[in-house]
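Entry:
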Amino acid sequence: MRALKMLLLTLSALLITAAAGALPVKPCFEDGGNYTFYCGTSSADCKTVTATISPAAEKLRLKNICGESVDFENFDLDGFLSAYGAEVVFTEELDGGVNYYCTANLPYSVNLYGKTINLHVCVRGGNARAASPIIFGGY
C-alpha cells in the first residue's frame, strides 16, 4: 500500500511539473520597466493590464492575451533588435519619435499595409516602448 501511495505521489508530481512547463507564462520581453499586457480578441476590444507583480506571474493569471509591451530607459535599439532577431520592415516618424515596425521571433502578429508585423518599437530620445505585435493605446 505504501509503495502504491509513493508511486501515485510521484506520478502526480510529474504531471503537475509537465503541465506547468506547458503553460505559456514566459513574457515576450526580458528586463525593462513597466510591463503591460493587452487582453481581448482585437485592438477594438483591447484592455490593458499593467503588471503589478512579476510579468510571468501576471501572465499566468490573465486570459485572452493578444499582446505585450515593456518600457525602457537608456534604450539600445540595435542591441534590442539583435536580441530578438528582428528585421525592420518599415519606419514612421511622429511627434518627436520614431516607430520601427518589425518581424521578429515573437508570438503575436498583425497585418499592417500588407506586411506581417509582430514587433513595434517606438523610440523617443533615449527611452522606448517595445510591443508585440504593436503598441496599443499610444506612447
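The mean pLDDT is 85.
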